[in-house]
Amino acid sequence: MKARINLLSTLLLQAIWPLTGMSQSVADIQKKFPGEQAVVLNHSLHYHITLKDNQPQVQSEEDQQLMFLSSDAGARLSQYSFYHGSFDTILQYTAFTKTAEGKKIKVTDFKTSHSQSEGVFYDDVQETSFDFPGIAAGAVGTLDISTLEKDPHMLTPFYFFRGIPVLHALLKITFPSTVSVKYLLKGIDSAKVSVSEDHRHGETTYTFQAEDLAAERAYEDAPGSRWYTTHVIFYIEKYLDPSGKPISYMANPGDLYKIYRGYLSSINNQIGTDLHHLVDSLCKGVATPREKAQRIYSWVQQNIRYIAFEQGMEGFIPRDANLVCNRRFGDCKDMSSILTTMLKLAGVDAYYTWIGTRKLPYTYTETPLPLVDNHMISTIRLGQEYIFLDATDPACAFGMPSVGIQDKQAMLAIDDTAYKLLQVPIPAAGLSRVTDTTFLELTDQSLKGRVALDLTGYYSMGFLDMLSYLQDKDKEKRMSAMFHRGSNKFQLDSFSIGDLTDKAHIRLSGQFTLRDYAKHIGSDWYLNMNLFKFYEHEEIDYPKRRMPIEFDFYNQRKYVVVLKIPKGYHISYMPAGKTFHNKVWGFDMSYEKKDNALVFSQEFDNDRLLLNADQFSDWNKVLENLFPLYKESISLTQD
Amino acid sequence: MHIYKKLLSFLLLLSGVLSGSSQTPAIYKEEWSSHPTLHKMTDQENKQSAVVISDIRRVEFIDEGKEVAEYRTLHKIIHLNDNTGIEAFNKVYLGVADNNDIVDIRARTILPDGKVINIDKQNIKDLKEEDGNEYKIFAMEGLVIGSEVEYTYTYKRSPSWFGAQYMQSKFPVREALLEILAPKRLVFQAKGYNCRLASTDTVLGEKKIIDGKLKDIPAAEDEKYAVYKANLQTIEYRLSYNTESGNGQDRLFTWQEMAKKVYEFYCTFSDKEIEKTKDLVEANKWGKLGSIAEKIATVENFVKKQFATRKDIDAENAGSLEWIIKNKLASPRGIVRLYGAIFNQLGIPYQIVMTCSREDARIDRSFENWNNASDPAIYFPDTKKFMAPSELYTRYPFIDPYWGGQEALFCRPVTIGTFTTAIAEIRQLPLEDFSESFNRIESSLHLTPGLDTVVVDMKQSYGGYSAAYYRASISLGDAEQQRQVLKSIVRFGTNSENIVSSKIDNADFESYSKNAPFTVNATVKASEMVENAGNKILLKIGVIIGPQVEMYQEKARQFPIQIAYPHSLERFITLQLPDGYTAKNLDDLTFHNEYQDQAGVTMGFTSDYKVEGNTIKVHIMEQYRRTFFPLSDYENFRKVINSSADFNKVVLVLEKKG
Q1: What ipTM did this prediction achieve?
Q2: What is the pTM of this model?
Q3: Which of A446, A464, A631 to mutate to test the interface with B (most CBs of B within 10 A)?
Q4: In the predicted structure, residue A195 carries a pLDDT above the cut 60
Q5: How far lies B506's CA from each of B189, B303, B503, B513, B517, in Å?
Q6: CA distances (Å), origin B653, targets A408, A525, B584, B650
Q7: Taking Cα atoms as reference points, which of B502, B12, B538 lies closest to residue B257?
Q8: What is the maximum alpha-carbon separation in chain A?
């Protein structure tokens, strides 16, 4: 589905301006934001909502000023750009530099190209780029754009923060008394935004302002930026028609559903013979709706490949199932289309379903807007149970939601007027387990070992996904990485992959040699049984870091190392184990002598998808307790 | 537009290939079978994700009125054996000069049951990327394992008299063909690189045809310490003679001719430009600086901080010095001209050297492909050193290291009377000596009284090319990025981020010209370097040299070894043993893998230690004095690389005396 990017939606391009901060000198700003190379002096965006022909119309004026601070700004920072797509028309734009000496130089060379969104093969988002001429420390670059929003249902939120400091950010929304506009402030610094409301000449203006915002830099393990960055979502709730009758516009999820339902009206009205035959052959001899659904889901997963074309409304309207079937490719909407159609043909209760992936923090209940979702799936009902089927993930096991939609609110199309909102469940930690057992034997110079790896749930699905796109010739290398332990002298000698029919449970095994890991000195062997130090250097940069951390799924992990004690040797040192848990997480580590073996095990679990800043200290506390155990080796001594 | 496209269009102006005829003959029409059938795979081929059954490329030159037009055709058939193969070929991007200049485009899928699905032309989209490159893009329909994908297209472009076709890729090719068709008077030549090219010349009516065929091209894999593109089986071609021009015997597009044009393109200036440059030079008082090297370095640092230059800064006036000085934006040509005008003003002799990245191609003395001479460097005969005008992060005398260590086209100016031009010399573009690019670590280690932490007093210095990464990261980063870089440097040599104190020196780009090493001094409490086994202390001394690339488990090597630049890595480790302790396995510190040829040491990793009382002093020298090592040196190279990786894992066992 359309991951809509227009000129406002990238962090790079937000800024505003009421000429307050302009008087600040380069030195003042550098003092306030040491080490920064440029700042947004001002980013202002003013939306004007009016009614035209009894329909809302939205136009905006955007003004940005960037001040360059570093001595090499001229060489490195001149490039700038803005985005636009098929849902906004750029009416006018100008850009110029005011040099440090006060000279104005206009930008004359603008270039427009396609801006490719991640994972989308073709879309119509365009990027217009240019260079600010004559810049150096103290120069100010200005960009003014006026835009006509072609679809007022899809107004882009206003983002206050950017990758460089913002001295002043301002959003104004002006609308007549016949229109009602709602807004919602989100993000970890919402408190920094001042909000005011002004009524004048029959118009209302909402004003949102914030000042002196530090640069916002992403962490790789953070969730999608909308989970933390401060922004205002605003939308037209309703308006009065000329007779004074209120028209509900985006007042509730029902209004949104009406639009979405319209997208479905032209598709899947006639089902071709190919699809009929296909469904018949897949369901031949199958009695239960569950099994039929399993087979159909699996077929779509394996046979329809993900390729997304998004041009104009193609970004919103699913393609006809017959076409998808012939082409054998499609985007998420197309997969929802063919999957729902096939399931219905087989007599399974199936529903087209809109959903936002975990990149987005929104719900339809809170903001009934298209920005809530970026994805489409199919949902089936078996008795009282709802199962969410995401065919874009070929490795997803039936019954498990795909990783990206856990805990998200889904909108199911029940019929022409009815919809249903459902929360996708989070599979319990016990469903996604790693059980990794290493059997070690000391030889003259090295360690020989055997691994049994048991994966369930999302671990198993992740492995399958990796495997399905692996060229034969790359298999050894990837499997070696999969089994890797000890040091980079790990050498995988052989491996085998067990039965793959159950996507939610896979067993692997391997044999390896590990040289120079165990030390044989004199009559002693020394060996650190922590073949994995998963959390070394994983302390959270706390209290500096404020952005949350995202985890893929709830899980349980257990790693066991069984060392066979060679004949003629005994354990001369066995470290003590430890168990430590606090309210955020914890671990269990233990050493034990069992017959002629030393058994070391470490266990971890995770039952959260998001770790917030107020939990960072507890997270680090666990590591403080864990790290000393990483430093313990065992020793064996000749009898 | 790419710099050399622009350079070429200038260079090729009026090259005397135009025709007198005004007829437009038809172009060759690519065959498109009306009943395509699947190809049978061999057992060997079945193991591949995809097999290119045939890869036909045609370059056809045609007289169109008074102009010569070029038409390019590509026709591929690919058999898909698994999901990876499907994913690699289900989305097709076809490069074109301009999306409006498509003559023909077709694509189809042939399914295992023989059914054919044609791609509707409506589903072929136009794509223009940020770099200005344009493509036709489409998705293949109906693909299942065992299908074949077939597509062909022909587009028109402004003629280029040179070309390079890379015929090898990540997938094996059964049969590849490059065909060059041209009016009879235009004599093209082709040459194969990394392959045995069987080519034939024929004349068919008014056309001359060169056929270059390659068979059974294996898949080419990425390898550590190898360049990829320049090692692929490639066919290059060039226009060498025009039998209807002059006596028809004069070789066209020689290096000599290129040198002349390069000089015109980069080194000639209008009076106004000279005047503006003079103002700039005087305002900055560069004339008053001491040595030539100092002048070069100062000018370079100034220009590389104040002026932006990129390939896509290509407005009409971005080559003119008046406009550049005002706007601080320059095309790649413009920036070279700016330097040239400044050096002229300062009376510093210079030569333009046209080179290329040895990762991609080469400058061949006997097969002049002007396209390959794509990157301009500036050579200063007085100091015998180089500068890279368009590279923002390199500084005199260091250039992009892949530009050197190979032959390049030196355009040496000569003046005859009042007329100045340049003559061509193909000669070696040397990189700075291996001793100039170094990483040196001097670390003193002692244990804390609790014997659970090593205190490391560390000095890491990086010279020449070895400094490039850290210097750029520190001097271009903001405060937080600098903190992260420092952490990573410290972690590299201690496996710890517990920094007690630290200091960074010579992080500025100005330090390159004196080769003042980028230096980090730090005191670090590295508890990660100590492990315990009862009353024994396991000291991970190898950690000091940092994690190293390993080549323990490698497949059969395809390509010779290439490294970016000659360099050395020298380490001095001083370990103070705790009182009453002795180290049991000091001999683990000794390595000796060094290789020589008649000219001396080529590469090596050696480490030795000596004991002075309670102190152990380790000296390690790792060095690579060449950028290129032939395949026959591969095993030795691997040993050197792995010695270093092995040293990183050395652990000393300390035990109480007694």
Answers
A1: 0.89
A2: 0.92
A3: A631
A4: yes
A5: 51, 20, 10, 11, 6
A6: 54, 11, 6, 10
A7: B12
A8: 100
